[in-house]
Automatic annotation (TrEMBL):
Entry keywords, A to Z: Methyltransferase, Transferase
Portion held of the full protein: 1 to 326 of 730
Keyword Cell membrane: no
UniProt keyword Methyltransferase present: yes
UniProt domain Histidine-specific methyltransferase SAM-dependent: residue ranges: 17-316
Organism: Sphagnum jensenii
Protein name: Uncharacterized protein
Length: 326
């Protein structure tokens, strides 16, 4: 597998400082960085989530790609480098790369992920499933997103870079974090930057609750795993019994248009050496999943300095796929 692949360790750059910042808060909600959800176990649980029948975002995105992939490929200038953020095993990517290959006769791809094993699988997947893809046009970069973007830009100093950000992941960032994220991405890539992403749309509460409070309980396990990782960073190993006692709760925030995933602690958890005290009955916010109205997304693009060039909307699933250009 070419370039920047350095073995099979799963890394996260989330620091103890970030965890403490969220857990020492005694005024508002305590929270942890959502990046802690995606260690090896968390990534496996997320893969399970995407197979749940009530988790519509995965199916919806797949369906939209199926319908629009040729039009999408035509919007991406020839000779562009497709850079995928958090490519995982690249389950949906082959569709896009095949369409680009068919439309432009060549496709250059860089997959960025923190997990070495996922990058390896993604590489095999793509080489097997995209006709005509060349080994020398592939880069698998084990890094976090911004570091990965800089590495890709160094390798391709002049080409148009199309950032591919699937999985409606923009929803996991707060409004201000999303703006910052886009600004940082543009700074890392420089000019000639476009983004192809999916954003889940604000929809009825029943459907949202079903998707994030699934019948089998995988989402609860996913969220608990993130909390376990946060406490492990503080040197606190959680027993299975304690973890089972945490109660997974989902709120639908109509004001902010987001699903909020919490854990409620039945008893006090004190880590005096870190000045952390989670009180009995208190909730910790582990993840948000924002659901956009058209206006919400336009606002985000404006704030980030992007112009939305193309948008496809799917009414059945309430999902939109967009290409903002810098
Ligand atoms: C990765 N991300 C877009 C998922 C979502 O829908 O917000 C993560 C997830 N959390 C719980 N279920 C899925």
């Amino acid at each position: 597998m070419p370039s920047s692949y350095d073995g099979d360790s799963t890394t996260t750059n989330t620091t103890m400082h970030q965890v403490l910042e969220g857990l020492q808060n005694s005024q508002g909600n305590k929270e942890i960085p959502f990046s802690l959800l995606y260690d090896k176990k968390g990534s496996e649980l997320y893969e399970e989530i995407t197979k749940l029948e009530e988790y519509y975002p995965f199916l919806a995105e797949d369906h939209m790609l199926e319908l629009h992939v040729d039009e999408i490929a035509a919007q991406i200038p020839p000779h562009s480098v497709i850079v995928e953020l958090g490519c995982g095993t690249a389950r949906k990517t082959a569709k896009i790369l095949s369409a680009i290959q068919a439309c432009h006769g060549r496709c250059r791809y860089a997959g960025i992920d923190v997990s070495g094993p996922f990058l390896e699988e993604a590489y095999k997947n793509l080489m097997q499933n995209v006709d005509g893809l060349q080994h020398e046009d592939m880069d698998m970069v084990q890094a976090d997103y911004m570091e990965g973007l800089k590495i890709v830009r160094e390798r391709y100093p002049h080409e148009n870079v199309c950032i591919l950000w699937l999985g409606s992941s923009v929803g996991n960032l707060s409004a201000s974090a999303a703006v910052q994220f886009f600004r940082d991405a543009v700074a890392a890539v420089g000019t000639h930057c476009q983004i192809l992403l999916c954003a889940d749309m604000w929809k009825d509460q029943e459907r949202l609750r079903a998707a994030y409070y699934d019948k089998v309980g995988v989402t609860g396990l996913f969220i608990k795993n993130g909390m376990r990782n946060a406490l492990a960073l503080l040197g606190h190993e959680v027993s299975t019994k304690d973890e089972e006692s945490w109660v997974y709760e989902v709120d639908i925030n109509k004001h902010l248009h987001q699903v909020e995933m919490y854990l409620k602690f039945p008893t006090d958890l004190k880590l005096p050496q870190h000045r952390v005290h989670i009180r009995a009955g208190e909730r910790v916010l582990v993840e948000i999943s924002r659901k956009f109205t058209v206006g919400d997304f336009n606002h985000l693009a404006n704030e980030s300095g992007f112009v939305i060039d193309m948008a496809w909307r799917d009414q059945t699933w309430g999902m939109q796929m967009l290409i903002p250009f810098k």
